[in-house]
Write a structure and sequence with these properties.
With 240 residues, the protein is α/β, with parallel strands linked by helices. It is built from 9 helices and 4 strands.
Length: 240
């Protein structure tokens, strides 16, 4: 099952092969889904793996894998039953420590200003220096983007735009070594990631409706949030 046959784009999200039997789980497995990149895109794999020749990339990946394993209890018990043991925020400061980072960046939405203060405090308690920047920093008016008054959240007055490029520049100038995103809007997070120089991670993704838990809507997309489906089932309507 080797080779570099040119096929369609990877579609791992819709793979029909049972997880334990997938070839991406073990080279001893033979089952592969349609357009499986493990089977059909060997050249791309080799090119990607060659990038780990960079010592910094190799060390980052190594420490990330070590951190991943450390988040499970009873790893050496057989049979193994996954027992997660750490929340993401603990995993984040442990990874930062593994990498030897001292100065962390924290960019956040002003709607999570209370949470941002708590997060900064938790990292500072562990000896990190935290440089933080709120989304509205700079007070740049939304008119700067060519927006009209009716395009604002609240019309009739001044409204500052979210400025993720400025957030990134502030952290770049401060020389942060690792940046943490806390609740930036869709699109604003993309701009920050595009312009930040230091590696980044996401502590929480904004979801105004779901309490910053975007997967809640996904989990409920076949029941209470089936309006997200393009073809909602009439049968489901009768089951409520």
């Amino acid at each position: 099952m080797s080779g570099s046959k040119k096929v369609g784009n990877p579609a791992c999200a819709t793979c029909k092969v049972e997880k334990p039997e997938r070839i991406c789980r073990s080279p001893e497995n033979k089952a592969a889904g349609k357009n499986c990149p493990t089977v059909f895109q060997r050249e791309a794999l080799e090119a990607a793996n060659a990038l780990y020749d960079d010592p910094a990339t190799m060390e980052f990946a190594k420490q990330a894998s070590l951190q991943e394993a450390s988040c499970y209890a009873g790893r050496h018990e057989r049979p193994f039953v996954a027992r997660p043991s750490k929340p993401r925020i603990e995993e984040t400061w442990e990874f930062a420590g593994r990498m030897g980072y001292k100065k962390l960046g924290l960019v956040f939405c002003e709607g999570l200003i209370k949470e941002a203060a708590m997060v900064a405090s938790l990292f500072e308690q562990r000896g990190f220096e935290v440089v933080s920047a709120v989304c509205k920093a700079g007070a740049t008016p939304k008119e700067f983007l060519g927006l009209a008054d009716e395009d604002k959240i609240v019309s009739g007055g001044f409204e500052a735009m979210c400025n993720p490029v400025y957030q990134a520049e502030l952290l770049n100038q401060a020389g942060t070594e690792f940046n943490i995103l806390l609740g930036l809007c869709v699109g604003h997070d993309s701009l920050f990631l595009q312009h930040a120089k230091a590696p980044c991670t996401v502590l929480a993704a904004k979801d105004r409706l779901m309490g910053h838990n975007p997967l809640a809507a996904v989990y409920l997309s076949e029941s209470y949030y089936r309006r997200l489906q393009t073809t909602p089932s009439g049968e489901d309507e009768k089951k409520d």
